[in-house]
Specification:
By secondary structure, this protein is mainly α. It has a single domain, classed as MetI-like (MetI-like fold, Orthogonal Bundle). It is built from twelve helices and no strands. Helix 2 crosses helix 4, helix 4 packs antiparallel against helix 9 and helix 9 runs parallel beside helix 10.
C-alpha cells in the first residue's frame, strides 16, 4: 500500500527523489565535486557558467557547483541533528507532561508557552551570539528552541491515548509509567512525529541558512548555502548566479521536505486509508 501510494502521489515521489539525491550527493561529495572546495583561481573570478565551471565561479574564483555540493553536507547535518535532539527531548518532556498531568503538566506547558511566545529565529540569533558562531552552536541553539513543538504534539496525543481502552487495561494490570509510555504511547506517536520531523528538518535547514547569511552560522572558508547567499549579495547585479543557485538549492530541498511531509501525513492518516 505504501509503495503504491508513493507512486501515485507525485509530490511525495518528487520529495523522496530530491531528498535521496541530496543525501547521495552529500555522501559522495568530494568524489563528484569537479574542484576542491577551497580551490581559488583568481584568473577566472566571477566567471559566468561555462563548460569548465558549470555554475560559474565566485569572487575568489572558487567553483560554485563544488561549493554547493559540499554545502549540502552542512545543511543535512544541521537538519538531521536538530530533528534528532529536538525529537528526543520533546518526546520525553511531552510524555511526562501528558502522562502525569496536574502540577507537572502545568509547569512544563507554561514553559513551552513562554518559549513559543518568542520568535524562534530571534532566540536562535541571541543564543548563537552569546555562544559564538560555529556549526555546533547553531545545532545547539536550534535544538534548544525546536523541542517545544514536539513536546506540545506528544502531550496532545497522549491526552487522547490515555483514555483509550487498551491503555486503561494496561494500567489496571499493574503496568508502570515507563512500560505504558514505551509499549503503548510511543508506537501510536510514530505517525504524527514522523510528519512533524520532516517539516522540522525543512525549518532547521532554513534557519541554518538564515544564520549563516547573517554571519552567525558556519564560518569561512567552510561552504554553506546561507553564507554563499551572503557573499553573492554584493554582486547580485553583475553576477546574479552567485545568489540564484544557492537560493535554488535551498528552495528545492525545503520544498521536497514539505512535499514529503504532506505525503506522509496522507499516507499515515487512517481515515484516508479507510
Amino acid at each position: 500500500m505504501g509503495l503504491k501510494w508513493i507512486l501515485h502521489n507525485p509530490g511525495m515521489f518528487c520529495g523522496l527523489a530530491i531528498l535521496f539525491l541530496l543525501i547521495l550527493t552529500a555522501v559522495v561529495g568530494p568524489a563528484v565535486a569537479p574542484f576542491p572546495e577551497h580551490h581559488q583561481d583568481l584568473d577566472h573570478r566571477l566567471e559566468r557558467p561555462s563548460g569548465r565551471h558549470l555554475l560559474g565561479t565566485d569572487e575568489l574564483g572558487r567553483d560554485i557547483l563544488s561549493r554547493l555540493i559540499m554545502g549540502s553536507r552542512i545543511s543535512l547535518k544541521v537538519g538531521f541533528s536538530v530533528v534528532f535532539f529536538s525529537l528526543a527531548v520533546g518526546l520525553i518532556v511531552g510524555s511526562v507532561a501528558g502522562y502525569f498531568g496536574g502540577f507537572v503538566e502545568e509547569v512544563i506547558m507554561r514553559l513551552v508557552d513562554i518559549l513559543l511566545a518568542f520568535p524562534g529565529i530571534l532566540l536562535a540569533i541571541a543564543l548563537v551570539s552569546v555562544l559564538g558562531p560555529n556549526l555546533n552552536n547553531v545545532i545547539l541553539a536550534l535544538s534548544l528552541i525546536g523541542w517545544v513543538g514536539y513536546a506540545r504534539l506528544v502531550r496532545g496525543q497522549i491526552l487522547k491515548l490515555r483514555e483509550m481502552d487498551f491503555v486503561q487495561a494496561a494500567r489496571s494490570s499493574g503496568a508502570g509509567p515507563v512500560r505504558i509510555i514505551l509499549r503503548h504511547y510511543t508506537p501510536n506517536l510514530t505517525a504524527p512525529l514522523l510528519v512533524q520531523a520532516t517539516l522540522g528538518m525543512a525549518g532547521a535547514i532554513i534557519a541554518e541558512a538564515g544564520l549563516s547569511f547573517l554571519g552567525l552560522g558556519v564560518q569561512p572558508p567552510t561552504s554553506s548555502w546561507g553564507s554563499m547567499l551572503n557573499n553573492g549579495a554584493d554582486f547580485i547585479t553583475t553576477a546574479p548566479y552567485l545568489t540564484f543557485f544557492p537560493g535554488l538549492a535551498i528552495m528545492l530541498v525545503v520544498l521536497s521536505l514539505n512535499f514529503l511531509g504532506d505525503g506522509l501525513r496522507d499516507l499515515l492518516d487512517p481515515k484516508l486509508q479507510a
